[in-house]
Amino acid sequence: MSVRAGPVDQRIVNAQDIRKAEGQIRGDSRRSLDYAEERGKADLFFNMQRPYMVPGDIWLPYGYDPVWHAQTTIPADQREIDAALIGLNYPSRDKLVARLRKPNKHPRRTGHGFRVYYELGPCYHDARDIYHNTVVGLNQSSLQDTTARVFELMAFGITPVINRVPDLMEMFVDRQDFLGFTEEDEAVAMVHTALNDLDWAQKIGDNARLAVEAHSWDARMQKVLEKAGLVKPTEPTADTA
Fold first, then answer.
1. Distance CA 8, CA 10 (A)
2. Which of 22, 73, 74, 178 has the highest count of CB atoms within 10 angstroms of its CB?
3. Which is more confidently placed, 60 or 16?
4. Model confidence pLDDT, tens digit, residues 50-101
5. Which residues contact 235 (CB under 8 A, 6 or more apart)?
């Protein structure tokens, strides 16, 4: 995201539109583009991912919306979906979900054969309703991105099982605010553990909600306006400074 702020005109260019055009069909798509031209046009250039930053960029991670990503009120032991991931069907995600869904002789939540919602499409209240009725929210970034889904899952107050990437580890605490994984086996183990101890799963979800509280889109836009000199800075918070 780049911003040009001046006495007469103010312009915001969202580089995410360019990124979408580059293509996100499969998990091996190259999504880290060279924004040299955009950087040259902007007084301020905001980058959502530290692994892709260059000198002069300002870190501005994704966030969550307090309405569309409101916390669930359904207790963990009453939710109907074991795990959910609403998003693109990358090969690595396909494989993980297939393992979680694979039936065996064990009862649900003592083996696998979990009820997993894995589709691309639902958004806003439809996505919120699905996640509110889910115990574990899954996220697996194909590169080094801390995706918007990370903040959304945490805001829903469900148990986030998320692959470890640099910015995630900087902002939140593994095994306290989320359950991190590096390899597929570890992801399966974390889902298995959460679904076999719903009290613990509930606690992780509650911790996630508290940890993400400062990372709303309102806070992100406040930072944009402050950096552009359009509003006075607020007192520092847990949000990125």
1. 7
2. 178
3. 60
4. 999 999 999 999 999 999 999 999 999 999 999 999 999 999 999 999 999 9
5. none
Cβ contacts of 130 within 8 Å, gap of 6 or more:
81, 84, 86, 117, 122
**Token pair 């991912």 is at which residue?**
49
CB 141 within 8 A of CB 165: yes
Q: Tell me the pLDDT of the chain averaged across its residues.
A: 85
Q: What is the distance between the alpha carbons of residues 102 and 104, in angstroms, rounded to a whole number?
A: 7
User: Tokens 């911790």 appear where?
Assistant: 207
Element (H, E) at 21: helix 16-22
Complete DSSP assignment for 47-104: ES-GGG--TT-EE----B-TTTTPPP-S-GGG-SEEEEEES---HHHHHHHHHHH---
Determine the Cα–Cα distance for residues 71 and 82; give it in Å rounded to an integer: 17
Name the β-bridge partners of 198.
Answer: none
What SS3 class is residue 132? helix
**3-state class of 5 per DSSP?**
strand
Number of neighbours of residue 113 by Cβ within 10 angstroms: 17
Residue 109 tokens read as 């939540």
The DSSP-derived string for 138-166 is: EE--SSS---HHHHHHHHHTSEEEEE--H
Q: Does residue 161 sit in helix, strand or coil?
A: strand
> Which pLDDT band, with edges at 50, 70 and 90, does 31 fall under?
low
Q: In this structure, what token pair is assigned to residue 222? A: 């406040």
pLDDT of the residue at 234 = 80
In angstroms, the CA 11 to CA 91 distance is 38
Region of poorest pLDDT, from 16-25, 73-82, 199-208: 16-25
